[in-house]
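Shipment paperwork, digital attachment
Item: protein structure file
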Amino acid sequence: MINIAIVGLGFGAEFIPIYQRHPHANMYAICQRNVDKLNEIGNAYGIDKRYSNYDDLLADPDVDAVHINSPIPNHAEQSLKALRAGKHVACTVPMATTVEECMEIVKATKETGKKYMMMETVVYSREFLFVKELYENGELGKVQFLKASHQQDMDGWPDYWPGLPPMHYATHCVGPVAGLLKLEADYVSCFGSGTIREELAKIHNSPFAVESAHIKFRNSDLSAYVYRSLFDVARQYRESFEVYGDKKSFEWQLIEDEQPVIHTAKKPEPEIPEKVTVPDYAKLLPEEIQRFTTKGVYDADEQQHLSFTQGGGHGGSHPHMVHEFLSAIAEDRDPFPNAAQSANWTSVGILAHESALQGGQLIKLPDFGSI
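Attachment content:
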């Protein structure tokens, strides 16, 4: 049994019941600076070990692993502290806010021998698992191109979100295009387009309404195209990815609640596209947590975190991520994505924004796997 501590109880509380039911986990402790919130969640879920100070939590020798759900600016610091305190780390996206921080986390996993997993929802969504199954069964044939988008209206979100450069939160579209074939981004070129209103633009000195990037993959003939928007763009929430093979291709639906399309080569033209129903993949999970692929974790809809409701439930990914993290610890193997993969995906976005500020300049990524 792995003693888990969850840090941050907004979005983080979504995971408590999953850990409580997983056969490898003991939902041991929770951590939140707001003591009233800490006690409210602790009482609701029957968790006795409660910390309002992160350092005190890390000093507890009974904590085996932490699952970090704190604000983005805290991810790198808290991950590094936990690894150096001898804890395994799962962290919500993105890994960090600088390439240097990403490097530090990769180094820390090598030095400590502890596991790190960035909890990227899209690569455990039912849509991704469906396309992965098509690919592994040979139905796509040779993959020729990958594309992904993440468009969201984040007006009204708190704290650090207003004016955030779109590509600084890019892992939801970088993850699936890199993750399907386990590719590593080599270099990136990105263009900014449009402008957001001045009071938002000045916060991060980032004017762009949309950022669109091309990614070239190392030791591969493949490239991918990803685009992001956060403010002042009229678009229903869309977190999509598309894969083009020489036998079949998968295209995301344009409107939520519609169906994606499979295109099959060499059929009569009217028969090439076919709408498909993506199945659920709860069968891949221990029976105790299968229900969480289709049901929200909280009891009432109004309690659910905005990222979960606005993001369509994250494709049923939460129990899959928990299971992968715990299994990697139990089996003493790297999780997917591991630290080097997480650093690569995160750095694509960081460097894509740098490229956009330089008018599309090609920028090479570090080779995190060789650190």
